[in-house]
Amino acid sequence: MEPVRLTLxxxxxxxxxxxxxxxxxxxxxxxxxxxxxxxxxxxDALTPWADPFIVAFLILFMQWRCPVHVQGKASPSLLAxxxxxxxxxxxxxxxxxxxVSIRAAEEIECPPPPRRGRTITTFSxxxxxxxxxxxxRRNLVGRRNCDITAGIVMHGFDIxxxxxxxxxxxxxxxxxxxxxLDSVGVATIxxxxxYHELPIIWGHSLVNHLAGAARLFAGAFDGALxxxxxxxxxxxxxxxxxxxxxxxxxxxxxRVADDGAExxxxxxxxxxxxxxxxxRHLRVxxxxxxxxxxxxxxxxCIRTILSFRAAGVDRPPSLPTDVTNRQIRxxxxxxxxRPYQWLEIAQSACEHGLGRAAWVRAIYATIRYNxxxxxxxxxxxxxxPLRNEIRLxxxxxxxxxxxxxxx
Length: 407
Description:
- The chain has 14 helices and 11 strands.
- By secondary structure, it is an alpha/beta fold.
- It folds into 3 domains: 4-107, no CATH class; 118-259, Rossmann fold, CATH 3.40.50; 296-407, no CATH class.
- Strands 1, 2, 3, 4, 5, 6, 7, 8, 9, 10 and 11 form an 11-stranded mixed β-sheet that branches.
- Helix 9 runs parallel beside helix 11.
- The longest helix is centred in the C-terminal third of the chain and has 23 residues, at 358-380.
- The chain starts with a strand and ends with a helix.
């Protein structure tokens, strides 16, 4: 079988900006180009190895199901770990993604940086990434403590390049992140990427997106921490930043590790209450059109506000509007792990003697409603093709009346 070819482009300098890019070429002629842009002051920190692109493109490799030839240098220890990663993803996806063979023109270990012991992290101003930075900078992790000296703030991660008002949103987020990171002595690295343009499911490749970006800086750092939203109690949640998957994305001279899986969101909130800058600029919302601030209306905002209540911590300035019991009852879950996170909030509130509070009863009501909703959705699933055929015949579209009206 003809291989997919991964070709690195020469490093480009555009004013004060560096552009690092690679092109993936399928045997049938299809191409996908991935690039990262960052300030030129970080040029010496970049690695000339293809490792970051191999990690970032990995889910697409598995989706295309062709052997891969890398026209450049790759770390053999990384390639060995990626075989384990692909075997794991193949099982998780129930055969949707297939392991492939990856070969490079030069298989040689990426050398360690001149100065050892420095760690980089990805930083979104969310609860998990704030927790990782703060506890390591305050030396609260015992023998596992890492010297985090830089944080990557990505444009193209949760603020996509083609969103309305994307540049202004990112600049607002970047300013907030810089204030937070400066307060604990961590450098801010603004990075832009077109990763979301790849024809893959973003939720399935989230960990590759983050780890690939971190590996760019293997010339100055020998490790990366990626904040974890999947706790050890919920390892059955197979996607996202999962401890097991992330452990297979490192190499001999560049360690990649998850962080924070032992702590619940409520425990993270109780620690972060000591960090004023985090309370001012915490960002958990992805559903506020045209703004980098929290909307205080979406499922994630409401859940975070209630988490502060259950943790016994005052609602922070970054969540300026409280929620009503009616809003709680009307929340709709869109992911399987959401009921567990809401149940955790309610159970913690009960442990603090708040079980009879109206807002706690509202949480239990919305959990019950969403469980019923999911049950009926599963029952209806086999009849969806028939429903779509009837819709197509009667109204010329498989969309519902509400979807057609919104369009």
